[in-house]
Specification:
The chain is an alpha+beta fold and 325 residues long. The chain has helices at residues 14-23, 33-36, 88-104, 126-133, 158-169, 181-196, 204-213, 251-255, 258-269, 291-298, and strands at 4-8, 48-52, 55-60, 62-65, 68-71, 81-82, 109-113, 137-148, 173-177, 218-225, 228-237, 241-249, 275-280, 282-283, 288-289, 303-313. Strands 4-5-7-16-8-13-12-11-10-9 form a ten-stranded mixed β-sheet. A four-stranded antiparallel β-sheet has the order 1-2-3-6, sandwiched between helices. A hairpin with a 2-residue loop joins strand 10 (218-225) and strand 11. Helix 5 (158-169) crosses helix 9. The relative contact order is 0.16.
């Protein structure tokens, strides 16, 4: 323990942070500071770096809210980010050091939303076991629907196949574009307003900014009928996953099979990725499932992966004292 120290992130450490994240075994571009910091005005950043002597061995993207430290609430996922050569015993020391540090700083609870395992470049379940040993509470669990491209299921739903045929009959076209405004303004924003009275998490200005910073990772695919946009999807691409971050169609897109036509195209486009992730189908903090949405995703061969949220009392670091025999 004496060899491990914890330090709060500062802007001067940006290059150190980013270099570590790029080489970690359980990380994506969402943990790069240029992604995390675009909405820094909305959160009080409390990201942490853990060193073994002078070597950086882990980072934790996080924000503080009163006496709780959260896996950064501006990100879809988070958790403890580890180096590729980090062993279980080292992770044990890292995690214990974090809990001790947080308790000393007056933080009562650590809330972690773990990185779904499909994003790992190497096995990385050390934290799952350690959360068990400190009696962490699993307070939310979502399911995300994924196609496993190394053994994909065929599109089985007759509804999906009919939708694809509709798209062909209506001579729909899919275009990859760098301009996000047509999808945001003509499809996504009006559809979310009409169906859920909500706005997308990212504004069109924010997604344009993020795409300018990560052009190889954020891509926009739109569906057109007679040069009029009818549907689209925004894809976040990591080393192992192509994830549909936004999916939407207007009335004309729904009538003409726009989304079915689009996702057949996307599944064929991203076969080089290990997984294609349609995203979660949960509501009410994971306690409810949108049955129709899940049915649509499973019709393309998507099957469930869990996305877990844990809360642990920082004082429970004492439960780690006698872990090893």
């Amino acid at each position: 323990m004496d060899n491990y120290t914890v330090e709060k992130y500062q802007k001067a450490l940006k290059t150190t942070w980013n270099t570590f994240v790029k080489e970690a075994k359980n990380s994506t571009f969402l943990f790069q500071r240029d992604f995390m910091d675009y909405h820094s005005h909305r959160f009080t950043d409390y990201s942490l770096l853990v060193y073994k002597k002078t070597k950086l061995v882990a980072v934790l993207p996080a924000n503080i809210l009163e006496t709780e430290l959260h896996s950064h609430q501006g990100l879809s996922y988070g958790g403890l980010v580890l180096g590729k050569k980090t062993t279980f015993e080292e992770t044990y020391h890292i995690f214990k050091s974090l809990l001790v540090y947080l308790e000393n700083e007056g933080v009562k609870a650590l809330k972690l939303k773990l990185l779904p395992k499909i994003y790992n470049q190497l096995p990385s379940d050390e934290i799952d076991y350690l959360l068990f040993t400190v009696k962490a509470n699993l307070y939310r669990r979502d399911i995300t629907s994924c196609v496993y491209n190394e053994n994909p299921l065929k599109i089985s739903s007759s509804n999906r196949l009919r939708g694809i045929k509709k798209g062909v009959k209506n001579e729909l076209q899919v275009r990859e574009e760098s301009n996000f405004e047509p999808f945001w303004e003509a499809v996504l924003v009006p559809n979310l307003k009409q169906t859920h009275d909500e706005k997308p998490v990212h504004s069109s200005e924010e997604i344009r900014l993020l795409q300018s910073r990560f052009p190889d990772n954020i891509k926009q695919f739109n569906v057109y009928k007679n040069d009029t946009i009818v549907a689209g999807a925004t894809v976040f691409e990591t080393s192992t996953v192509a994830h549909a971050q936004y999916i939407s169609a207007n009335d004309e897109g729904r009538k003409t099979g726009g989304l079915d036509f689009l996702f057949k195209h996307l599944l064929e486009t991203f076969t080089h990725k290990k997984y294609f992730d349609f995203g979660i189908s949960n509501e009410a903090q994971g306690m409810k499932i949108n049955k129709g949405l899940l049915y649509w995703k499973e019709g393309f061969g998507g099957r469930s992966i869990v996305h877990d949220f844990y809360e642990v009392k920082t004082e429970n670091h004492n439960l780690l004292n006698k872990l090893f025999i």
